[in-house]
Amino acid sequence: MAAVLLRVLALVVLAVTAGCVSTDAGQAPTVEETDTLEGPTQTDAPTLTTMEYPYGTQFVSVERVDASVAPPLSDAESARFENLTRTRRETFLRALDADGGLTFRPSDERSNPFGFGESDRPEYVRYEGTWYLVAVGIV
């Protein structure tokens, strides 16, 4: 579970560094130095706002998992590729081929078959003898 949280956090960091999220003014917050023991104080706290991606946008990425560090998987966390629905198989293959993963906006006609809030969404998929992590992030 910790590995999944780290992957989702990595997706969020990727979204921030890709320019999907920024500070209000597009500048870093300013910091004033003080002579107190507390150290520097922040005068303008950054406010994150979405720029290119509207609220509810989901990001799906598929990454190969090294078998030597793969966590033990329960049936609820994992699935074999052939047991996925047709739309999940298609989405998995598209995300596997996409360098940065896939983006599903709320306005898209197609929805994310690996939806962020879906309780039956497998976190790991076994495809052609290899385990893959299916990470889903949301704005």
List the helices and strands and how they pair.
Elements: H1 2-17, E1 21-22, E2 31-32, E3 41-42, E4 49-50, E5 58-64, E6 78-80, H2 86-97, E7 102-104, E8 124-127, E9 130-138
Parallel strand pairs: 6-8
Antiparallel strand pairs: 1-4, 2-3, 5-7, 5-9, 8-9
Order of helices and strands: HEEEEEEHEEE
Number-wise, the strands total 9
Summing up helix and strand content along with how strands pair, one would put the structural category as alpha+beta
Give the count of helical stretches: 2
Distance between the termini: 20 Å
Q: How many domains, as an integer?
A: 1
Which percent range describes the beta-strand content?
A: 15-25%
Shape: globular
In the sheet with the most strands, the strands line up as 6-8-9-5-7
Pfam family, one: DUF7979
Protein name: DUF7979 domain-containing protein
Organism: Halapricum salinum
Summarize the structure.
This is DUF7979 domain-containing protein. Helices cover 20% and strands 24% of the residues.
Features:
139 residues, alpha+beta, five-stranded mixed beta sheet, two-stranded antiparallel ribbon, 2 helices, globular, DUF7979, DUF7979 domain-containing protein
Question: What report would you give on this structure?
Answer:
This protein is of the alpha+beta class and 139 residues long. The chain has one domain. Helix content is 20%, strand content 24%. Strands 6-8-9-5-7 form a five-stranded mixed β-sheet. A two-stranded antiparallel ribbon has the order 1-4. Strand 2 and strand 3 form a beta hairpin. The longest helix is centred in the first third of the chain and has 16 residues, at 2-17. The model is unreliable at 1-6, 12-18, 20-26 and 29-34 (pLDDT under 50).
